[in-house]
């Protein structure tokens, strides 16, 4: 469903002309809430980034939210050893504290493509970082969950409004009823929680099916 269609669905239950101008806000709040609660398979993205020689970080895409699960090897590094026959290998992803602790003990991490990395978030901007300057260009292939932008155009839609419209407009309805202190809020919150639980389960199944196909 697009924004305009979702607004109509909200109005079918709320029927408050004085709130119609607020429906887009409620719908976008619903999208924020479901993304806050869960990383949805339909928001998976992939990109390639290069950390340049002499640098210690590379910025992740503006829509970056979280990496895919560790067991899916969400960051792959291009192998600079052309004789090995392996184009990419999984990045060694650790916490910043762990990497700095190991480096302080002279663990011998190199500044090349096999150097451990961590993800940092600074004022809403995320980076891949290393605890040194790169001695060569390091090429990453990154798989991540994206944060979807707000819907603004009436015809705008996204992966979640297409896959789970009932969940979105149930939460938007609850927000609208909450605004006017209508007890119907509880009814629609309950509907939302039921939709969310069901959709989260189907999304989990979708992930495992996709992983099985890739193995």
Descriptive overview:
The protein has helices at residues 3-14, 23-37, 96-104, 159-163, 165-179, 184-214; strands spanning 44-51, 57-59, 64-67, 75-78, 88-90, 118-122, 125-129, 138-146. It is of the alpha+beta class. The protein has two domains: 3-40 and 148-214, no CATH class; 43-146, no CATH class. Strands 1, 3, 4, 5 and 8 form a five-stranded antiparallel sheet that branches. A hairpin with a 2-residue loop joins strand 6 (118-122) and strand 7. The longest helix has 31 residues, at 184-214. The two termini are 33 Å apart. The mean pLDDT is 91.
Question: What's the structural blueprint in terms of helices and strands?
Answer:
Blueprint: H1 3-14, H2 23-37, E1 44-51, E2 57-59, E3 64-67, E4 75-78, E5 88-90, H3 96-104, E6 118-122, E7 125-129, E8 138-146, H4 159-163, H5 165-179, H6 184-214
Antiparallel strand pairs: 1-8, 2-7, 3-8, 4-5, 4-8, 6-7
Helix pairs in contact: 1-5, 2-5, 5-6
Which features does this protein show?
3-stranded antiparallel β-sheet, 2 domains, 40% helix, 8 strands, 215 residues, 6 helices
